[in-house]
Each structure stands twice: as structure tokens, then as C-alpha cells.
Write a structure and sequence with these properties.
About 10% of the residues lie in helices and about 55% in strands. It has 2 helices and 8 strands; from the N terminus they run αββββββββα. The N and C termini lie far apart (about 40 Å).
Length: about 130
């Protein structure tokens, strides 16, 4: 993975599911959230990727996952207001479920890297989730 994506945002855990492949983890996953913008990066069985999307005031989520030098996947879903995002992805006529959870708290090293990159510090902001 390239250097910039390895440093971008707060560490997260995530996965996506696809028929025939089952559930696949997203490794080295990081997100930076400064509402309404969401950006990040990671790596999975397909390859390294970058994330670019938004979280609406009502918790609606739209993310474009672009595999470096390859295709793009659209992630639509919602944010629960507590650090968990989930929904359905779609690409090339196929679709499946996905989930991303922000790990609570960042290390001092993560905060220093974020500050160097001009990113906001601290955990994912609280946004009113859908239906509340």
C-alpha cells in the first residue's frame, strides 16, 4: 500500500460479503470523518483502495471505493451515530453487505500523523442516526 493511504485517518475494522467469496476483511482500514466528508484507505483480497464519500445529517452514507488502477465499488448505507457504518455495496451488476466500525480512541502517534496531514483529531463525530 502506498505511504499516504497507510497514514490516513483513524484505524477501523471492516468487511464485505460477496456470493462465492463469503465475508472478506478490509485490512489496514482507516477513515477520516469531517462531516459531511468521509475519506479513507485500506487493502483487501482485490487490492489496495481509497474511500471517498459522505455522511448526511440523517446518517445516510454514500462511499465510493476505488481500487488503485482498477474498478470502483459504490457503498450505500447508514451510520448508527456510535461509530458503525453498514449497508449494501454494488459493482458490475453484483452486490452484497458491508460493515465498517471505527476503533474507539486513537494513539498519540495516530493523532500526530493526522495533525501532520491536516486532518481533524479525535474519534468519529456524533451525528444523529437515521430514525432517531
Amino acid at each position: 500500500m502506498h505511504e499516504r493511504s497507510a497514514r490516513h485517518g483513524s484505524p477501523c475494522e471492516g468487511w464485505w460479503e460477496q456470493r462465492w467469496f463469503g465475508r472478506r476483511p478490509m485490512d489496514d482500514l482507516r477513515l477520516a470523518v469531517a462531516p459531511p466528508r468521509l475519506t479513507g484507505s485500506g487493502d483487501d483480497v482485490v487490492g489496495p483502495f481509497v474511500l471517498d464519500g459522505s455522511i448526511a445529517a440523517d446518517g445516510g452514507v454514500e462511499i465510493r471505493k476505488t481500487y488503485v488502477g482498477k474498478h470502483q465499488v459504490v457503498y450505500l448505507g447508514q451510520y448508527d451515530g456510535e461509530g458503525r457504518l453498514w449497508g449494501t455495496w454494488s459493482c458490475c451488476g453484483d452486490s452484497g453487505r458491508w460493515m465498517i466500525a471505527l476503533r474507539r480512541g486513537r494513539s498519540a502517534a495516530d493523532d500526530a500523523l493526522a495533525a501532520d496531514a491536516g486532518e481533524p483529531l479525535g474519534d468519529i463525530p456524533r451525528i444523529a442516526p437515521r430514525g432517531r
